[in-house]
């Protein structure tokens, strides 16, 4: 197995109080034309949609309920805010192992994210206050 390292920036996560309103902002203010239909991910506690860009995505996420991992974030930032940065990796299980070895705190277990591949999160305290998501590269995405 090759030495662990992060690969391409896959998306920037933005937490919002109202997903439809945020989509409208990207449509009307920024002229975004390729925005996916919002969908719920109950197991992740969020409603999600993507603003597809030539080289990356903005991932808009809204808490589904009070148990959502981003419920507190929206409480503290009622207008929303930049939430996480996601990098692609070859192997999430290798990433978990390496993060542990390198003294970082992995949040929860690997689970399937909005791109249908395994993801993990590394605590903001390990990366200058930025929540980092690591996701396995989707098939055919290179
Ligand atoms: C559908 C999946 C999709 C995908 O891409 O596939 C997603 O990306 S879903 C994204 C939503 N899911 C997650 O974020 C899961 C991982 N996150 C967590 O486990 C929590 O959000 C956690 C632990 C990072 C923070 O939880 P919470 O805010 O409830 O805890 P605290 O209030 O105690 O916060 C601890 C400490 O961290 C600071 N904080 C919280 N969120 C963030 C953030 N997004 N970026 C930077 N810092 C953050 C918070 O202010 C506290 O700081 P402190 O100085 O200790 O007060
Ligand atoms: Co994400």
Written account of the structure:
Belongs to the methylmalonyl-CoA epimerase family. One of its GO terms (biological process) is L-methylmalonyl-CoA metabolic process. GO terms for molecular function: metal ion binding; methylmalonyl-CoA epimerase activity. It comes from Hyphomonas beringensis. The chain has 142 residues and is an alpha+beta fold. It has one domain: 2,3-Dihydroxybiphenyl 1,2-Dioxygenase, domain 1. The chain contains three helices and eight strands. The chain has helices at residues 19-28, 71-76, 92-101, and strands at residues 9-15, 39-41, 46-52, 57-63, 81-89, 106-112, 118-122, 131-136. An eight-stranded mixed β-sheet has the order 2-3-4-1-5-8-7-6. Strand 6 and strand 7 (118-122) form a beta hairpin. The longest helix has 10 residues, at 19-28. It is globular, with a radius of gyration of 15 Å. 28% of the residues are buried. The mean pLDDT is 96. Ligand LZKTLF4L is lined by residues 13, 41, 44, 46, 48, 59, 61, 69-70, 72-73, 83-84, 86, 107, 113-114, 119, 121, 124, 129, 131, 133.
Summarize the entry for a quick read.
With 142 residues, this protein is of the alpha+beta class.
Topology, pairings included?
Elements: E1 9-15, H1 19-28, E2 39-41, E3 46-52, E4 57-63, H2 71-76, E5 81-89, H3 92-101, E6 106-112, E7 118-122, E8 131-136
Parallel strand pairs: 1-4, 5-8
Antiparallel strand pairs: 1-5, 2-3, 3-4, 6-7, 7-8
Bound molecules: ligand LZKTLF4L and cobalt (II) ion.
């Amino acid at each position: 197995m090759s030495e662990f390292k992060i690969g391409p920036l896959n998306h920037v996560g933005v937490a919002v109080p109202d997903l439809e309103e945020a989509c409208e902002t990207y449509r009307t203010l920024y002229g975004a034309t390729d925005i996916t239909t919002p969908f719920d991910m109950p197991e992740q506690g969020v409603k999600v949609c993507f603003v597809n860009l030539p080289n990356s995505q903005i991932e808009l996420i809204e808490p589904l309920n009070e148990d959502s991992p981003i419920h507190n974030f929206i409480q503290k930032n009622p207008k929303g805010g930049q939430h996480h940065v996601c990098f692609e990796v070859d192997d999430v299980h290798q990433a978990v192992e390496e993060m542990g070895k390198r003294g970082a705190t992995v949040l929860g277990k690997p689970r399937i994210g909005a791109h249908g591949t395994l993801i993990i999160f590394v605590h903001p305290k390990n990366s200058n206050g930025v929540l980092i998501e690591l996701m396995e590269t989707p098939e055919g995405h290179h």
